[in-house]
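Readers of this paper often ask what the protein records in our data store actually look like. An entry from our holdings is shown next, in its original layout:
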Amino acid sequence: MHLGNPLRWTASFGTVIRPPKSRRSVRNIIIHEKYTNTILNHDYDIAVVQLSSPVEFTNDIRMVCLPEEFYVFPHNTTCFVTGWGPSINNLRQAEVKIIDTNICNRAEVYNGAITPGMVCAGYLEGKIDACQGDSGGPLVTEDRRGIWYLVGIVSWGDECAKRNRPGVYTRVTYYRDWIAAKTAQD
């Protein structure tokens, strides 16, 4: 996938798009080498962005930690997904639960389409979900110590909030080594 010149991209921070609390230009975009933008293959749906300068953390701009590659977020873990959705100015948040991969791969759900690099979250009854425009957004959870971890990245789903069609996210632990390799300090 080609995103054009990274210098034409900017990253906005805060809870509203206009005006953002902070903005940085993008120095580089690194897309996973095995990613193919096809409707039938959602594997390797991950990229990292190198910003032109560091971001200062505030009450509206917070850090999220990367979990270790071996960490397992169990079935029914409470998570939050945030996104802008289709053309809204205020960041929105939804509470969802992790759904075990074996359940998500059942015939009536995604029929075996969930691979090890993916994690499902939402509700089998539908009603609450990420949607178009949220792609690339974070799926996070808080541990007992109050530390927030990035569980997943909004990737795909069958429409939005439909019965037996929970959201599917890129599983961050699966790509932890790749992320570390691409973000290593020189």
